[in-house]
Amino acid sequence: MPHIHTTISAAQPLMWLNPSRVDNAPPSTQAGNESISQVDMHAAQDRFRRFAPLLASLFPELAATKGIIESALLPIPAMQEALGLPVSSGKLWVKADHSLPVAGSIKARGGFHEVLELAERLALEQGLINTDSDYTALAQPAARALFGQYQVAVGSTGNLGMSIGVLAAGLGFKAVVHMSADAKAWKKDRLRQRGVQVVEHAGDYEQAVASGRQAAALDAKCHFVDDERSLSLFLGYSAAALELQRQLAAHKVAVDAAHPLLVYLPCGVGGAPSGIAWGLQQVFGAHVHCFFAEPVQSPCFLVQMLAELGTHPSVYDYGLTNQTEADGLAVPRASLLAAQIMQALLSGVFTVQDGTMFEHLAMIFKTEGLRIEPSAAAGFSGPAFLQGHQLVHANTTHVVWTTGGLLVPEAQFQGFLAKARDPKTL
Ligand SMILES: *Cc1c(COP(=O)(O)O)cnc(C)c1O
Prior knowledge:
By secondary structure, the protein is of the alpha/beta class. It is 40% helix and 14% strand.
């Protein structure tokens, strides 16, 4: 067997199992300089609920759910068959965050949470609301005038910018999104249409974040959403665990020692999948097993999990390019906050070639009619890596998290299908 570092450098797909995982994690977790627990996850969920009526009034697409931003949990038997995953290996589901409204991706969870937390803090400080108020008051001129004095900035490969930009502008903030060179043109166009200022950078995601952070530091009325360091983003993502818990219960799916839950999460900087994995661990303890999926050219989280304590390597150190069509995952260096929290919780990381993501994107469209973007297809390779593992049997529940796709324009989506038909164009 070649050494894992050799396989990473050769950009070959692999599954790494975390030898440091512990089954019984303590109830509170060290996150940077703070300690977080279930209480914080519930607080994030409560914040989403307080804001739901306001969001329903600001965004017509949220009227049907009364402002609640949730995605379905879907059984996908035809996809399971197409993947060649026998029923003796358990049952395959999709957690359909690709259909999250307004933002069109998993970033709705973390990104919206941080903007709402900021808006709430400012409005409480100014006495415009108290936490028992009807928050639709925040659509009134007094609140919009307050928010208009502040700028919300973020660095992004695309989807986080979409989430933060659209919500911040919708509330009346000045919104600025620093985009990396690999960000898709249609995402930039869409943001500009919504009144968001887009600043384009020649470099990669990490440089876009650094530029945004630097610009914001000079301005006391600028709030920078820091994808590499933010606990508010992390806790917003974690609330998804409570949603999945309710949905599994509604489908009468047990999660216990005899019925393990395996979750496959596409990973960029690591904030979204780690927030969710941490939340799931709070809810299901030892019986949930989370695996992160990364492009073979951008396995930054894997590289960080393998790194010596106190070091922060990038995928370039492995001779990789960070070039991938999975733009939501094109990140060269992981979030240290996320990596610290995952050290003892994560079950494993696997890597995926772009061609495989396109193949699975086309497969789930054909078998289940779901329209996802390439990043969101990364998780479908997970179950095959685990065939024969003791956790995989007829009573295993596999949940693949599909993380984006709703807003992809038709022409772009047809381009994805064309690439799947002819991988030489990759
Ligand atoms: C951002 C993103 C992810 C991963 O989230 P990170 O917090 O960057 O790890 C996964 N899928 C899509 C579609 C994304 O936009």
